Amino acid sequence: MRILLFDTSINGSPWPLFVPEFEALTRSNPGQYLYRFVDEAAFLEPPSIANRALTRSLNWLTINVAQRRTRMLAYEAAARFLRYRRHPVRYSDLNRHLLQEARTFAPQAVLIVMGFHISPETLYAIKRETGAVLINYATDDPFNARTSSRNVREAIPLYDVYACTKRAAMDDVAKAGCANVQYVKFGYHPSVHFVDTQATAEERNRFAADVAFVGEGDGDRLPFFKTLIKAIPDLKLALYGGLWDLNPTLRRFHRGTVRGRDFRLALGNAKIAVNLVRVQNRDDHVMRSFEGPACGAFMLNERTEEHLRLFAEGREAAYFESPEELAEKANYYLSHDREREELRKAGWKKTTTGGNTYRDRLMQILLTVQPAVSRTDIGRVGPDRYAGRTDSVGPHGADSSGEK
Predict the structure, then answer these.
(1) Tens-of-pLDDT digits for all 404 residues of the chain?
(2) What domains appear along the chain, each with residue ranges and CATH number?
(3) Long-range contacts made by residues 166-174, C-beta under 8 angstroms, separation at least 24?
(4) What's this model's pTM, rounded to 2 decimal places?
(5) Strand partners, 159
């Protein structure tokens, strides 16, 4: 199978999500799988002064404004009227390059990871000229104004398979025109997410924490940690990720951004790793749901139906629903070391033996499209309204920061 992969390396590890998996597949199955990777990061352009100023304003609003509707209206206005992009790209160049790569590589399948900056016209042209099966792996809710774009939503009918990481978005994707909507969870990279036993004494001290959270701050997450530090005044709290430094109450707990080894050490050296979902993104689990336990963290997860399906409460993970319950559970497990350690080990075992790697997710996707790839008649091309307009449409909407 010849597969053209589109993703970005701009966000750092674990992105791009499937490149290591494709490398391993081509080594272990020579001749059976061939792939080519198109990296969106190659088309980034420096943000303008106006773009940087708007980013700062939206960041402040994201972390300090509690009303979700107000934040959503601000994101929508910035995208619609100001054509705001957090990561500006050379839009036309990117789309022309992707189409040219498809023409020269002649893929049987094209796997797009979200695809904020890919125009529907480009996808239509790829499908018309190559007959490739189009697959989208949607790491965000395509209907979330902050993390998606008009391009993403308008392109939904063109995809043969839409792999959603949120069950709640699946019906809306189907209504938008995709006939084959699949639920494909997040995963972890064994080469990145593992228990790191080589930490030095200095590193263990630097990353030591009672409670750690890795992820971007926002107004929905603020009450959890404000309540936590009020309930446990001497708590050693570590907040990793963007925007926490913009809130005066939580700024002192901000420890910057962590990737790769620092990510492993941040989670592995905390007594408790808090895991929050985004209601605005209709999350039922997140990337950290697997990455955390794979790194050996004790997980205190926000309670969702999917989380409860993944990890048994009180045996493989602990759960909370409200800021008050988070504080109660954190206080309990900080004083119950043995119980915390038992759950930590069980969560690690469940994650690492349960078929939760990104290779497992990739094989799930490829097995789904294999029958279509094997047929000479791939199926419908998509709405004719896209024909002949490959380079005519400019960018729409906002894109994701890559932090969950």
Answers:
(1) 999 999 999 888 888 999 999 999 999 988 899 999 999 999 999 999 998 999 999 999 899 988 888 888 888 888 776 778 777 899 999 999 999 999 999 999 999 999 999 999 999 999 999 999 999 999 999 999 888 888 999 999 999 999 999 999 999 999 999 999 999 999 999 999 999 988 899 999 999 999 999 999 999 999 999 999 999 999 999 999 999 999 999 999 999 999 999 999 999 999 999 999 999 999 999 999 999 999 999 999 999 999 999 999 999 999 999 999 999 999 999 999 999 999 999 999 999 999 999 999 999 999 999 887 876 344 444 455 555 544 433 333 445 545 56
(2) 2-186+357-386 (3.40.50), 201-353 (3.40.50.2000)
(3) 166/138, 166/141, 166/281, 166/282, 166/283, 166/284, 167/284, 167/306, 168/141, 168/282, 168/284, 169/138, 169/141, 169/142, 169/143, 169/282, 172/142, 172/143, 173/138, 173/142
(4) 0.90
(5) none
